[in-house]
Amino acid sequence: MFSDDQDIDHGDLRSSTTPWLTSGGPEIRPVAGSFACDVLVVGAGITGAMVAESFTRRGHEVVIIDRETPGHGSTGASTAMLLWEIDRPLSELTQAYGFERAARCYTASIRAVQGLISLTRRYRIPCHIRDRLSLYLAVDDSGRSLREESELRARADLPGVFLDHASLFRRFEIARAGAILSPHSADADPVELTHELLKISIGRGAAIRQADATAFESAGAKVIVGLNGGYEIEANRVVLCTGYVMPGIVRPTIQRPTSSWAIATEPQPQNLWPEDVLIWEASKDYHYARSTTDGRIIFGGEDDDSAIEPQAREALTSAKRKRLRQQLGAMWPRSSGKIDYCWSGAFDTTQDGLPLIGPVPGQKNIFAAYGYGGNGITFSYLAAELLATFCSGGNSPLLDDFAIDRSG
């Protein structure tokens, strides 16, 4: 995580080009003076776009600000695997928080993916979103822990089936001790999704402006946000969607900064694994894989918390590229070894694998939406719905589950 007093630009959040970086975003003009609004969304990446859409859908007047091009920071580095399965297994969350709370978080996550898919279809958003099965691969020799995880999921009424070694190999030609196969995940183009959601909000009357929020004052009835040009924005509510650049007023203790890498192969639709499932491993620092609509394989992982600064990430990229290529070949030998893209990005996680969503402690009418971890886009949608509902008079126990000041 970077702090907002550092001079951070998009190059610090991701390195090199990715398959997503295309034109077509909304026009963003600099702030020309001080003004007032109902809801100010700080950040125009995927989280800010979802928050703006959710608030405008409920009739709120919204202004979105970002200091750079919308959707081209950490959003552009996303592999956009829209998984509902959380980084921490249900069994681990149950040990930490009890079964009821753990099951509630998992259920909310699966509903978030379903809600996002429904949203894109309702508004016919052209973001290449596709319903996908997910394949959660064992990394040990027995698959016993995954079998137990599958049984606990069934107790929570979560969909999925355990595949033993023989069943897994017969259906997917992947040689592991076992796997959990689950429905209701998805994949998409994160930049197109961001741009289209912003356009929907703008069509409802929202404004998007280029500005850098440098100060927040929430002691009075309104929140006053100071900008780098000396102007101020007076808002009834402020939602922080700043990704891996977190303002100093937000002080969680359970997040961990790291960096992650990914590669994208040349198009090779003839070499893809059966059923185009999303693939990820049952380990803390897992590898993951998906395909794209033009038949590329995206393969990522190799997280490293010793290389946070951009220069350190870049220095490791050649070795990480080689390692990812080797790991892809080991998992799926049929894949072509030609790599068209390799990139890295800032990537924060939390100790419990859950997002940071809700009121910022000690800051009246300022809210945070940080979907850290491997479920970033899923958690972004969840944050958008929870916060818009809360600010419209509703509530949810999930706001306690995801509280900014919780201990992991």
UniProtKB/TrEMBL annotation:
It holds the Pfam family DAO. GO terms for molecular function: oxidoreductase activity. One of its GO terms (cellular component) is cytoplasm. Gene3D superfamilies: D-Amino Acid Oxidase, subunit A, domain 2, FAD/NAD(P)-binding domain. Residues 38-388 form the FAD dependent oxidoreductase domain. Residues 1-24 are annotated as: Disordered. Keywords: Oxidoreductase. PANTHER family: PUTATIBE OXIDOREDUCTASE, SARCOSINE DEHYDROGENASE-RELATED. This is FAD-binding oxidoreductase. It comes from Bradyrhizobium betae.
